[in-house]
Amino acid sequence: MSRIPLLVWFLIPTLIIIGLGVWFLSKNPTLSPQEDQTKAAEVSQEVEGTQVFDIVSRDHISQGAPGSGYNSNPPASGPHWSAAAKNGVYDTSLADEQVIHNLEHGHVWISYKPDVSDDVKDKLKEIVQKDDWKVVLAPRDKNDSVIALVAWGRVLAMDEPDYAKIEDFIKVYRNRGPEKTPE
């Protein structure tokens, strides 16, 4: 008779722990594969003007090696180096292959043509410095547009800055890469 309560004390907590473990593993999106690795993560409302591109690849290439096969400018996915850039503001260009790794981790990359006015640069820096979690700002002379906002599988090109739209892009697409990381 005294064995029944002892059994109950071990059996019930064990079943609860197993149940919670199954629930956690089935609900945690970082532990389950993305449904379609060739598509960008879905959002409820795209930021107007944002182009969505198929995911080229998530392959790592040797540090310093050039990537190829990109389907957007700036690239929004594809072969990249294994070392990501630190978030924040840069005054010099970064290699596309480096920043693509940031995109894979859910960062937003804001690139601008180096000859953009100082007023525009200052406002972009202000936006990023206000909240630089998973945001990289750097000049890029290969841009097709004056300013390009990039997230994993998405590009928003601007020839005239729309600062409200830039902030919306960051809010909507930040942390939407296939690898969820805390940095």
TrEMBL record:
> What does UniProt give as GO cellular component?
cytoplasm
Q: Does the keyword Secreted apply?
A: no
**Which InterPro entries does this entry report, sorted A to Z?**
DUF3105
User: Source organism's superkingdom?
Assistant: Bacteria
**TM region positions:** 6-25
Keyword tags = Membrane, Transmembrane, Transmembrane helix
Asked if the record carries the keyword Transmembrane helix, the reply is yes
UniProt name for this protein: DUF3105 domain-containing protein
Origin species, per record, is Candidatus Curtissbacteria bacterium RIFCSPHIGHO2_12_FULL_38_9b
